[in-house]
Specification:
By secondary structure, the chain is an alpha+beta fold. The chain folds into 2 domains: 31 residues; 105 residues, Immunoglobulin-like (Sandwich), CATH 2.60.40. It is built from 2 helices and 8 strands. It has a 4-stranded antiparallel beta sheet with strand order 1-6-5-4, with no helix packed on it. The chain has a 4-stranded antiparallel beta sheet with strand order 2-3-8-7, with no helix packed on it. The longest helix is centred in the N-terminal third of the chain and has 30 residues.
Length: 160
Amino acid sequence: MADRSSPFDGIEELLEKLNRQLETAARSWEQSIEDQSQRRLDLSMNVGSGSTSLDIADEDEEFVVTVDVPGYETDDLDIRLSGELLTIEGERKRAEGHDDEEDRGVYIRREREVQSFSRKVTLPAAVDADGIDATINNGILTIRLPKREPDSESHRIDID
């Protein structure tokens, strides 16, 4: 009867194997989360009733931000830079001279309402605010942000 094994003999080995698998999975999840956060670089934060797509390219001497803004005119857009935070906002209003009372009999279907969007992008490096150029062509806003040269001067910091 001594040859007969106990049902509990393999439990410790099974628990150790399960523990190793859980540790491997946890490391994999942590790496996946780290990779996603590095890829994102805090590049976008949508605010407002609508959203728009954007791309950011690093073209050696400058960052180029390309934003889809179909139907928006130059006066409908507001672009601001505060430090390394670029804010792009747009608000498209209904055509002047048109109101609901007047248009009820004209339109069969009306889906193009007042729209707005706001995008905030943290740039990966400082840019030269004086050299920024923005243009709109065929509903695409292109913002060119020249990189600022790193400050190579050293500054003495006094200790109080």
